[in-house]
Amino acid sequence: MTLARRLVSLAFLLLSAILAGGCGAIGGLRHNRELLAFLPSAAGFEWKYSGFSGYDHQMKLDEIKRQVGTARFVISGMVGDPSGGESPRDHSLRITYTVANGVWVQEKVEEAMMDSEFDRLEILRGPIRAGTTWTQVQVDQKGRRRTLDSTIEEVALDPVRTLVVYYRERGEE
Length: 173
What we know:
By secondary structure, the chain is α+β, with helices and mostly antiparallel strands.
């Protein structure tokens, strides 16, 4: 087989692969761009959260690792200690946000984060519009598999990008 025929065959195989599974792949890349618009574009960004009953945590974006179709955000931080140092828990926090295939996934390692039952969670999926739904099965910190029906309820882009996303456990009201 000549080089030209091999190149044509290779191009045909690539085009076939894109057409066979490609609508999702192409849509995934477009949705990746939508999701990445909600995340910082450079290392050094800091988040500070102050919440209920003296709870707080701080996080800093240490690094962004980019590969074709994937962006990984490596984050470190600390969960505040309302006990004044009496808690034996480790208050360090490590989070990785991964955006790939139109899905934003959070994976975390921590002992003291409040209201955080899952070490892995699909935070968001594209397309970013009210009514987008997806189902995810995750394992909670006690090892139980739990099904979450997730819905983007509201999208506001002006004056600030704001989303309301509900994660409802199947069978819970």
